[in-house]
Amino acid sequence: MTIEAIHAGWDEIPRDYCRSLDPFVALSFAAAATRDLRIGTAVALLVQRDPITFAKEAATLDRASNGRLELGIGVGWLREEIRNHGTDPRTRVALQSERIQAVKKIWAEEQTEFHGKYVAFDPIRSWPKPVQRPHPPVWLGGWGPSTHERILDHANGWMAPTMLGVEELQKGIGELNLLAAQMGKATVPVTATILAPQPGDIERRADLGVHRVLLGLPVESRDTTLRTLDRLAALAA
User: Fold this and answer.
1) 181 lies in some domain
2) Which of 7, 72, 131, 151 could form a disulfide with 67 if both were Cys (CB 3.0 to 4.6 A apart)?
3) What stretch of H or E contains 215?
């Protein structure tokens, strides 16, 4: 357990958190089994992934799905995990910003290079390029003033943290919109996530101006999962 998890009220790390599938491999199966369903990460930790490999994985999945990929990206919170991937937790925010910039350059340019404080590589060529141009939508996760600024600088929208209640979500949307006005930028859409949705939860977030709501689907047996999907479909109807 970490101090952050204890402060969040957790007694232990959730089982599903420790046993999740690799997102890009799992999403390739979802893409193959569907035609119109949007697929995405919520969120992928770019600070724990090589940016050149990440750019190729995401572009490949966007092309294989015919342009259906949405990329939720976060900096992570579990410091021990971040360190195990060779990243200093204290610099992960700056690292994320540079990696997002580098990945976008790889997607956009025939040949590219990048020379920053945390990310540096000589001229490379990387294929395929994403179907969606200039790139798949990037949703930035996180909370607080610095997150809002990074969203407006590097992302297409805000992926609000799952633990935010309606009042906190309303506050965050207001702060994000205010900052956009101060920076002379357009407001961006917001995606909210509800792990255990109840009647009225989706409507309350829609009233705040939330663009899209993601609903939690616990890892269960096939029959239980199908019943849960039916219940979620009724809530979203």
Assistant:
1) yes
2) 131
3) strand 212-215
Identify the domain containing residue 85 by its residue range: 3-189
Per-residue pLDDT of the chain (237 residues; tens, 9 = 90+): 444 444 445 566 666 667 788 999 999 999 999 999 999 999 999 999 999 999 999 999 999 999 999 999 999 988 999 999 999 999 999 999 999 999 999 999 999 999 999 999 999 999 999 999 999 999 999 987 789 999 999 999 999 999 899 999 999 999 999 999 999 999 999 999 999 899 999 999 999 999 999 999 888 899 999 999 999 999 888
Number of domains present in the structure of the chain:
1
Residue 171 sits in a domain whose CATH number is: 3.20.20.30
